[in-house]
């Protein structure tokens, strides 16, 4: 199947008073139509910045310095701002982390929803309002006629997140980017939001990129997953393979720090010692080397190349370089 989105060797920097932050350092990823791709990693690893770079939504201090972004056979980096805006609002939808700061507090929900349709689909006000009413029902918001007349502050946190999903999906995009869509919601509302995403994928065949730090959500929702650290993707695999054949030490550390729901008593969670790397002066070697209990001298000197396995899994770690060489009957 052809790829819907393909990102190749993406580099993004932020020019700050303290120096140039190398936030994304050579990220490559792809997603096919109807697929759910998870991107996981701790705060500051580059997950959200990667998506903002793809969409051309960086602020004035951010800059994509290198790489290609191809969506539906179009190179997004070659497009004008006007053409990119059309794709961003029409073919790619995004759910941001904080719906309260993403929704305009001065406008009614109905006006914010219909704006997308009137700009991108050229609908008149009556058609757009009918579509907005329908999408609110799809995302589980009752009394849509009343809700369309209300302002964001009149909605609960879970309902605001549903409105954000409705806004992202109202133009029926081919790709939905969901950036921590369940952050700060209680577990019941989280489950409801995830069910909405599942139903929409099944109904509309929408591809989803799900950014999260919650490995439980990844296991439930995703087909494949990329693990990011220090602005790089250090491991990528089918979601089942990632959990049962964890390869990178950072991924192992993430899994070791998550409670096992099948163990009630006596669980010992192991935090990852140390701090993430300084991306103003990033390490020349593996970004995880300073925190890795398996680190060798070579890990601090150069970044390991990506090893690709027959099942499609990939890992950037010298431990697996050693394994591959030994399997071929040679010594490191």
Could you characterize what this model shows?
By secondary structure, this protein is of the alpha/beta class. The protein folds into two domains: 181 residues, 3-Layer(aba) Sandwich (Rossmann fold); 69 residues. 36% of the residues lie in helices and 22% in strands. It is built from 13 helices and twelve strands. The strands form two sheets. It has an eight-stranded mixed β-sheet with strand order 6-7-8-3-9-10-12-11, with helices on both faces.
Task: Write a compact overview of the structure shown.
This protein has 2 domains: 1-91 and 174-263, P-loop containing nucleotide triphosphate hydrolases (Rossmann fold); 102-170. With 332 residues, the chain is α/β, with parallel strands linked by helices. It is 36% helix and 22% strand.
* H/I helix tally: 13
Let me know the largest β-sheet.
Answer: 8 strands, mixed
- Globally, the shape reads globular
The first-level CATH class name of the largest domain: Alpha Beta
Number of strands: 12
Q: Please write the string of helix (H) and strand (E) elements.
A: EEEHEEHEHHHHHEHEHEEHHHEEH
List low-confidence stretches. 328-332
Average pLDDT rating: 89
Radius of gyration, whole Å = 21 Å
The portion of residues forming beta strands comes to 15-25%
CATH superfamily of the largest domain: P-loop containing nucleotide triphosphate hydrolases
Side-by-side strand order of the widest sheet: 6-7-8-3-9-10-12-11
Give the tally of structural domains: 2
Q: What is the CATH-assigned architecture of the largest domain?
A: 3-Layer(aba) Sandwich
Regarding quaternary structure, what we see is: single chain
How far is it from the N-terminal to the C-terminal residue, by CA? Answer: 38 Å
Structural class call reads: alpha/beta
CATH topology (fold) name of the largest domain: Rossmann fold
Helix content: 25-40%
């Amino acid at each position: 199947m052809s790829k819907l989105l393909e990102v190749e060797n993406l580099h993004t920097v932020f020019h700050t008073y303290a120096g140039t932050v190398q936030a994304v350092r050579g990220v490559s990823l792809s997603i096919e139509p109807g697929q759910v791709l998870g991107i996981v990693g701790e705060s500051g690893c580059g997950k959200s910045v990667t998506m903002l770079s793809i969409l051309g939504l960086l602020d004035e201090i951010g800059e994509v310095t290198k790489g290609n972004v191809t969506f539906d056979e179009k190179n997004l980096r070659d497009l004008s701002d006007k053409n990119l805006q059309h794709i961003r609002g029409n073919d790619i939808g995004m759910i941001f982390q904080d719906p309260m700061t993403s929704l305009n507090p001065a406008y009614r929900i109905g006006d914010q929803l219909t704006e997308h349709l009137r700009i991108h689909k050229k609908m008149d006000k009556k058609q757009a309002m009918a579509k907005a009413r329908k999408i609110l029902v799809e995302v589980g918001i009752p009394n849509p006629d009343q809700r369309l007349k209300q302002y964001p502050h009149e909605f609960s946190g879970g309902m605001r997140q549903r409105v954000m999903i409705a806004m992202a999906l109202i133009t029926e995009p081919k790709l939905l980017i969901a950036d921590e869509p369940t952050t700060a919601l209680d577990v019941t509302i989280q489950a409801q939001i995830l069910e909405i995403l599942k139903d929409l994928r099944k109904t509309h065949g929408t591809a989803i990129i799900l950014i999260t730090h919650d490995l439980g959500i990844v296991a439930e929702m995703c087909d494949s997953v990329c693990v990011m650290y220090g602005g790089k993707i250090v491991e990528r695999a089918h979601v089942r393979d990632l959990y049962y054949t964890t390869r990178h030490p950072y991924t192992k550390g993430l899994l070791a720090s998550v409670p096992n729901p099948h163990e009630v008593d006596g669980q010992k969670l192991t935090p990852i010692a140390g701090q993430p790397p300084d991306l103003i002066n990033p390490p020349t070697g593996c970004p995880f080397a300073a925190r890795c209990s398996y680190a060798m001298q070579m890990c601090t000197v150069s970044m390991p190349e990506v090893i690709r396995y027959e099942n499609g899994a990939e890992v950037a770690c010298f431990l697996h370089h050693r394994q591959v060489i030994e399997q071929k009957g040679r010594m490191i």
